[in-house]
Amino acid sequence: MAGEQGELKLIGQWGSAFVTRVKLALQLKGLSYKSVEEDLRNKSELLLRSNPVHKAVPVLIHNGKPVCESQIILQYIDEAFAGVSPPLLPADPYQRSVARFWAAYIEDKLVAPWDRVFRARTDEERNEALKQMSAAVEALEGALEECSKGKCFFGGDSVGYLDVVLGGAASYAKAHEPLFGAKLFDAARTPRLAAWLDRFCELDAATAMLQDVDGVVEYSRMLIAKNSARASNN
Q: What are the φ and ψ backbone dihedral angles of 203, each rounded to 5 degrees?
């Protein structure tokens, strides 16, 4: 299998939901790879050479050629290993465009404010970001209904592109309640997403690749405390 797929190396970092997306896709495709854990406080020459523009993880190196940015990497994996397991993106061009639209929505309207929640320097900043996330989650409830057509996943009967894009943050979604006192995907408010989260986390690929929720809670509290300390020192 390694000879057929070529050499795969993933530069990542444990706490990154973006890296977890790529790990999930590789696991779902049954692809073997070498994982390289990056210290983002002391970036390696390999990372800087492989992603000189953003200098960020994840980077997937396939036969010596780097591919950067998690969503682009997912699409690359789907195309480069098209004959390996079911595709992540739909075959129909319109359905592919819908999946890409909602993936961009997740990035802009959910992930970006999510990042601000952890990095906020004041309670006001954090509360505003939490409100933005809440609105985005309600829209994603409708997206799940539209894309799944009443089935288990965004991809229908099987896991698709949107499942992996959102599923990379599944451990953070579960950590939301112990961190902020409320579920991100609440069964009363967003029942489809709440059921989706439970189903996704039970997948073999998810149990193998998702971060431990307690570890995510600890890591997130460290980020929040660090940024609060910076604010108080300014």
A: -65, 145
| pLDDT (average), residues 178-182 | 96
The CATH number linked to 62 is: 3.40.30.10
Give tens-digit pLDDT for 61-75: 999 999 999 999 999
The C-alpha angle with vertex 141 and arms to 191 and 201, in degrees rounded to 5, equals 65
CATH number of the domain at 117, please: 1.20.1050.10
Please write the tens of the pLDDT for every residue from 98-108. 999 999 999 99
Taking CA atoms, 219 is separated from 14, 83, 114, 159, 234, in Å, by: 10, 38, 14, 28, 23
- For 24, the token pair is 């999930």
Count Cβ atoms below 10 Å from residue 79 Cβ, excluding itself: 11
| Domain boundaries, position 183 | 93-225
Q: What pLDDT does residue 234 have?
A: 66
Cα–Cα distance, 19 to 104 (Å, whole number) = 17
Give the end-to-end CA distance of the chain in Å, rounded to a whole number: 54
Task: Measure the CA–CA gap between 144 and 123, rounded to whole angstroms.
Answer: 31
**Pairing mode, strands 8-12 and 59-62:** antiparallel
